């Protein structure tokens, strides 16, 4: 019996209530309000389209539109990280929440550096693993975002008994770098990331 | 030399010869050449030998002789004498195994008296106790078999021995103490199970229990080349049967098992839980009532704090087994067991939704599943509390958590009480369902929740919807009026609700309606159908598109066979009204699509429809008349090929399973479509028809596709083919009509050419005047005809392919038409919706393999010899073939193909070719990475190159007519990244490691791609590459 967990009975959110773009992309809204149920009746390779005439559809017509990296995309990157204690995602435990993710554009016109701020909410105020979770989120974002983003992960104010100390740890470049040299710690983080999609 | 001498001599040299000697002795005994007394006399000297091995082998000889002697050769007196003789030898340590075998042989030759059995048993316990003093498994094994045999055949004798001598039992149990060999243990467990289940064991219960439980948990692991075929599972099963064999074990079993439940080993816990489930089912309700609460207290932890899913599952089985056993007894203990369970679950409900409230739902529904009695007790113990909590709940999340528990209990209720169409486990006359007391409240709560909760509360509304659906299913629970309310709410969600998110609720509502239609078809037809119909306009002159989602939903209802016919009839009527009202083409197409979808949704019902009835008269004929314009003017919508295509498909679905007779009625009208004009005035026979009148060819194609081979054509097949060949080359016809005509050529070649003429069937086209394969006359429309013919022939694996394919391949270097021919290869093997088995076509199972073998090696060969400007044509042709070939076939040629595929990645502007090449490379990396590991550097560089919009290197090859400025499209970029991810996962570490740094660095570019799809692939790819050198990532 693993009774040594900090919080053995956390509240769980239903995955379908969580925001995500990952699932949306599969069902694009259609103009006629339908779901495209009847589209499959006539296969795409139907004989009515002539393969000998160079097809127009092969080049993506919407290739010019730019899809910027936004808060929801950041959320999708980190919400599927596993909690080190429970076999549940940080999203469904509400450790990371969409409203607590902010992207700040470059401060001056000469700079290209944008900043991503993620505030995490530990499931209970004395959670001893808050630092590890924060580190996991930070490493994930540093691996997944282009270098023009600066990543800032912190514990949300008032949600942890020692939030100042934890934030100091997470913000200290040297200490983060030292932590990443620690094999045991990296092993934990790798297991947290194993569920990322 | 006596037989025994020869036996002993042979024994060391060759065991088989020794056995032959024993068999000869047996033969001589049988025909009287050898007297038994002589035989025994000859043994004397060796039985008294100083050498223990000699003594043992001598008895072994006797056992072998006895086993070989036929029945009835030995008299009763002789057998008795032999028994006494053998029994006197068991004291001789080395001879025990042989003695046991001799005794078994003797027993097989004549039944023993009970005294004899008693004597043997006593001698064994007296002289050889404990058995473990004999070190060789081969010595102990025959003894165990002997005891097992006596236990099976002389159970009374042994039982009397137990009843008459008080110390027998303990001696008997300890006799087997210390056995370790799995083969022997299997027998020991079987032997001991007899006293456990059948004898009164009284004071010896603990000793007997310990004798088997000492082996718990079984940790035996068979050797790799296990010669005996005994698995750990066999031992576990027998041991578990022993533990569960008698309730007398309960005082020892439960404390011991629960103690082991605290083990850290998952395997041990699994064995414990399985043993508890077994005991709960076997020990009976009186015993179980003493331990039920203790067990609940222990088992609940496995479910409330799941360690491994299957352990939780097994713990649930245990709890259910206890409930089942107790429900066979009196009410007191039964309720005493359920009370703490309900109390605990009610407590967990207080702070729903949590892990433990979810676990409570599992517990309750699993136990409720056991019987009507349990189900009712739990419902009256849980639901009042649950509903009270629901009323006072302050968040929607909590309400959802509570309803989830209730819905699970309703599901269990359906299992016990059945649904409207089938009875449940409680049988035909179950006790009154307690759910009746709560149905009104449950119904109100969930109707209200689904109706009034904000649309963004998806999961809450989904639970309400699921709950309502389950309530409607419970046998004889809700009145038709109540179910009607549920139906109304469902269809109003489908019809009126604003779309939100993924529209999960709408989806669920419509499939809920299908489920209810399965239970109560007439209610759905009466309530929901009019509502749907009212939303479908007769004409869409106002231009609104709101009908699309209504049609989709309505068509889905056709999947329930009990309302299928009504759906079809309503759709058909609506279609006719819309045509009369001159509705737009879009609306007509939508209605036809809905009809086709509905027909496909219940295809079985269409197939079984008898002959020329319903669907043919009501749907096919009117549609054909409308298409040809027989009845007055042709509706505007029917002037479009897409509409006509749908008309053709609907007719095809209905006609293809009809009889030859019925099909032959239509075939004369294949091209005239009941228009009442002679056939030679319509296409393809008349090639000067006005273009708009050629469009019915699209319908004719589908009719031709539906015909059986035996159905007569309207004219001779060769005439028809050459008419179609001419017609398809007309320049004034539209592209769909041309494609339709070509497809008819394919259908004719595939279905109507008998096998004997297959080799020569192309001759009329190849020879002048048509001269189809002439290099000079080659043009796009001829190329189309060539591919149409080949497509039909390759599906039949026609022998003519081996001469036709080379001529086709030679066209790839054609100075002007080479590129067109190359594109055609993509059509050869692509899946086809007309040339199918359902349409009575001949499809050979191995046609892809055959064409691959005929085409691909020649392409790789010619590619090497081709001039640089022609090379792209070969790559395009290759990708067209590979696109549709299953990977198992491709894998044979990987080594030859890899260089071509890599070069395809350098093509500019041929995005589809690139896609196909990356697709094939991805499969290769996935399935046989070794084959391309040699190209790792080239592959990685090209994939990286294709992962960004603008290529970094100069393009060595550009397909004809493509400007250099083209960029790599997002789809190709994403595919390249997926393939690159696989490279890191599948190639050996030492191969990819040198590239790691460069790849990880280069990928930062793709991380900033402007397309989300590409970025997401890049993230996955980069994280995979980052961890390749770290230990433990392959666990």
UniProtKB/TrEMBL annotation, chain A:
Listed Basic and acidic residues bias regions: 19-33
Chain intervals for the UniProt region annotation (Disordered): 1-35
Highest taxon, organism lineage: Eukaryota
One GO process term, biological-process aspect: protein maturation
Residue ranges that the Swiss-Prot or TrEMBL entry lists as coiled coil: none
Family, per entry: Belongs to the MIP18 family.
UniProt protein name: Uncharacterized protein
Automatic annotation (TrEMBL), chain B:
Alphabetical list of InterPro entries matching this protein: ARM-like, ARM-type_fold, MMS19, MMS19_C, MMS19_N
Limits of the MMS19 C-terminal domain: 550-983
GO cellular component: cytosolic [4Fe-4S] assembly targeting complex; nucleus
Subcellular location: Nucleus
GO biological process: DNA repair; iron-sulfur cluster assembly; protein maturation
Entry keywords, A to Z: DNA damage, DNA repair, Nucleus, Repeat
Matching SUPFAM superfamilies: ARM repeat
Pfam families reported for this sequence: MMS19_C (PF12460), MMS19_N (PF14500)
Chain's role: Key component of the cytosolic iron-sulfur protein assembly (CIA) complex, a multiprotein complex that mediates the incorporation of iron-sulfur cluster into apoproteins specifically involved in DNA metabolism and genomic integrity. In the CIA complex, MMS19 acts as an adapter between early-acting CIA components and a subset of cellular target iron-sulfur proteins.
Protein family (similarity comment): Belongs to the MET18/MMS19 family.
Protein name stated in the entry: MMS19 nucleotide excision repair protein
Originating organism: Westerdykella ornata
């Amino acid at each position: 019996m693993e009774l040594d967990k900090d919080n053995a009975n956390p509240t769980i959110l239903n995955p379908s209530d969580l925001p995500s773009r990952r699932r949306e992309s599969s069902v694009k809204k259609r103009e006629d309000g339908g779901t495209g149920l009847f589209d499959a009746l006539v296969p795409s390779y139907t004989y009515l389209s002539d393969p000998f005439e160079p097809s127009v559809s092969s080049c993506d017509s919407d290739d010019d539109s730019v899809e910027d990296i936004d808060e929801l995309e950041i959320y999708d990157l980190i919400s599927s990280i596993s909690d080190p204690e429970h076999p549940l995602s940080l999203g469904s435990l509400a450790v990371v929440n969409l409203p607590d993710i902010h992207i700040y554009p470059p401060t001056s016109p000469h700079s290209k550096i944008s900043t991503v701020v993620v505030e995490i909410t530990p499931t209970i105020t004395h959670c001893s693993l808050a630092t590890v979770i924060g580190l996991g989120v930070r490493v994930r974002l540093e691996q997944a975002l282009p270098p023009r983003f600066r990543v800032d992960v912190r514990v949300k104010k008032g949600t942890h008994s020692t939030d100042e100390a934890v934030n100091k740890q997470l913000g200290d470049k040297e200490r983060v770098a030292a932590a990443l040299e620690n094999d045991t710690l990296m092993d934990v983080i790798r297991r947290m990331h194993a569920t990322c999609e | 030399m006596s037989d025994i001498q020869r036996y002993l001599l042979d024994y060391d040299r060759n065991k088989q010869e020794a056995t032959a000697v024993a068999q000869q002795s047996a033969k001589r005994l049988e025909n009287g050449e050898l007297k038994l007394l002589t035989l025994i006399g000859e043994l004397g000297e060796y039985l008294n030998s100083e050498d223990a091995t000699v003594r043992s082998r001598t008895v072994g000889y006797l056992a072998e002789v006895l086993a070989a002697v036929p029945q009835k050769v030995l008299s009763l007196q002789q057998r008795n004498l032999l028994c006494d003789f053998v029994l006197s030898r068991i004291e001789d340590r080395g001879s025990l195994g042989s003695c046991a075998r001799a005794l078994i042989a003797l027993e097989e030759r004549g039944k023993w008296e009970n005294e004899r059995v008693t004597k043997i048993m006593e001698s064994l316990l007296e002289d050889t106790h404990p058995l473990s003093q004999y070190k060789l498994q081969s010595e102990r094994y025959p003894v165990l078999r002997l005891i097992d045999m006596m236990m099976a055949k002389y159970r009374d004798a042994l039982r009397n021995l137990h009843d008459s001598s008080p110390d027998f039992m303990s001696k008997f149990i300890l006799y087997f103490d210390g056995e370790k060999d799995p083969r022997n243990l299997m027998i020991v467990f079987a032997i001991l199970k007899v006293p456990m289940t059948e004898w009164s064991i009284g004071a010896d219960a603990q000793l007997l229990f310990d004798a088997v439980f000492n082996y718990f948990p079984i940790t035996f692991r068979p050797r790799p080349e296990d010669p005996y075929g005994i698995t750990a599972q066999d031992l576990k099963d027998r041991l578990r049967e022993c533990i569960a064999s008698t309730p007398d074990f309960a005082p020892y079993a439960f404390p011991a098992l629960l103690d082991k439940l605290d083990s850290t080993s998952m395997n041990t816990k699994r064995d414990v839980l399985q043993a508890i489930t077994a005991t709960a089912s076997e020990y009976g309700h009186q015993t179980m009532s003493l331990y039920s609460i203790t067990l609940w207290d222990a088992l609940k932890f496995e479910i409330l704090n799941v360690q491994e899913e299957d352990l939780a599952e097994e713990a649930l089985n245990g709890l259910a087994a206890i409930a089942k056993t107790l429900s066979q007894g009196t009410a007191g203990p039964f309720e005493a067991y359920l009370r703490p369970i309900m109390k605990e679950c009610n407590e967990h409900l207080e702070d729903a939704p949590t892990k433990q409230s979810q676990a409570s739902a599992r517990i309750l529904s699993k136990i409720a599943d056991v019987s009507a009695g349990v189900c009712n007790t739990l419902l009256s113990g849980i639901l009042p509390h649950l509903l009270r909590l629901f009323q006072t709940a302050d968040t929607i999340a909590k309400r959802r958590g509570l309803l989830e528990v209730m819905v699970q209990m309703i599901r269990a209720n359906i299992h016990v009480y059945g649904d409207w169409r089938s009875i449940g486990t409680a049988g035909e006359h179950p006790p009154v369902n307690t759910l009746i007391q709560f149905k009104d409240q449950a119904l109100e709560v969930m109707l209200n929740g689904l109706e009034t909760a904000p649309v963004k509360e998806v999961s809450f509304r989904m639970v309400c919807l699921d709950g309502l659906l389950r309530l409607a299913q419970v046998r004889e629970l809700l009145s038709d009026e109540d179910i009607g309310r549920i139906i109304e709410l469902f269809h109003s969600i489908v019809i009126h609700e604003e779309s939100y998110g993924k529209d999960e609720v709408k989806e669920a509502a419509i499939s809920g309606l299908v489920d209810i239609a399965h239970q109560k078809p007439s209610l759905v037809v009466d309530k929901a159908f009019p509502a749907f119909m009212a939303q479908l306009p007769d004409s869409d002159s106002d231009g609104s598109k709101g009908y699309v989602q209504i049609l989709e939903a309505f068509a889905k209802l056709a999947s329930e066979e009990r309302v299928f016919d009504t759906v079809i009839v309503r759709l058909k009527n609506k279609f006719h009204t819309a045509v009369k009202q001159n509705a737009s083409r879009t609306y007509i197409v939508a209605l036809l699509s809905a009809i086709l979808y509905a027909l496909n949704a219940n295809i079985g019902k269409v197939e079984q429809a008898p002959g020329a009835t319903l669907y043919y008269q009501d749907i096919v004929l009117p549609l054909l008349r409308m298409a040809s314009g027989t009845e007055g003017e042709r509706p505007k919508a029917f002037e479009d090929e897409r509409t006509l295509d749908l008309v053709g498909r609907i007719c095809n679905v209905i006609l293809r399973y009809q009889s030859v007779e019925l099909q032959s009625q239509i075939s004369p009208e294949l091209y005239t479509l009941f228009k009442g004009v002679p056939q030679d005035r319509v296409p393809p026979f008349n090639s000067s028809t006005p273009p708009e009148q050629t469009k019915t060819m699209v319908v004719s194609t589908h009719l031709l596709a539906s015909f059986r081979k035996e159905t007569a054509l309207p004219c001779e097949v060769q005439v028809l083919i050459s008419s179609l060949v001419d017609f398809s080359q007309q320049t004034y016809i539209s592209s769909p009509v041309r494609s339709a005509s070509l497809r008819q050529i394919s259908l004719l070649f595939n279905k109507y050419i008998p096998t004997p003429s297959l080799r020569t069937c192309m001759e009329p086209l190849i020879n002048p005047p048509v001269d189809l394969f002439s290099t000079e006359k080659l043009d796009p429309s001829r190329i189309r005809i060539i591919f149409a013919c080949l497509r039909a022939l390759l599906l039949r694996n026609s022998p003519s392919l081996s001469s036709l394919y080379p001529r086709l391949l030679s066209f790839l270097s054609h100075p002007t038409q080479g590129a067109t021919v190359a594109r055609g290869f993509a059509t050869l093997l692509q899946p086809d919706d007309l040339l199918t088995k359902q349409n009575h076509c001949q499809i050979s199972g191995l046609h892809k393999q055959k064409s691959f073998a005929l085409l691909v090696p020649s392409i790789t060969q010619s590619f090497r010899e081709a001039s640089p400007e022609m090379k792209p044509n070969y790559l395009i042709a290759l990708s067209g073939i590979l696109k549709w070939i299953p990977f198992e076939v491709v894998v044979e040629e990987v080594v030859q193909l890899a260089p071509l595929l890599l070069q395809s990645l350098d093509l500019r502007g041929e995005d589809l070719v690139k896609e196909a090449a990356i697709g094939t490379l991805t499969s290769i990396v996935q399935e046989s990475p070794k084959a391309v590991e040699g190209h790792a550097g080239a592959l990685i560089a090209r994939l990286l190159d294709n992962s960004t919009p603008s290529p970094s290197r100069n393009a060595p090859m550009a397909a004809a007519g493509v400007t250099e400025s083209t960029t790599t499209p997002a789809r190709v970029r994403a595919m390249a990244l997926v393939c690159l991810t696989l490279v890191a996962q599948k190639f050996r570490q030492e191969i990819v490691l040198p590239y790691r740094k460069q790849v990880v660095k280069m990928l930062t570019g793709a991380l900033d791609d402007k397309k989300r799809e590409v970025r997401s692939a890049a993230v996955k790819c980069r994280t995979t590459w980052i961890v390749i050198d770290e230990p433990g990532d392959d666990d």
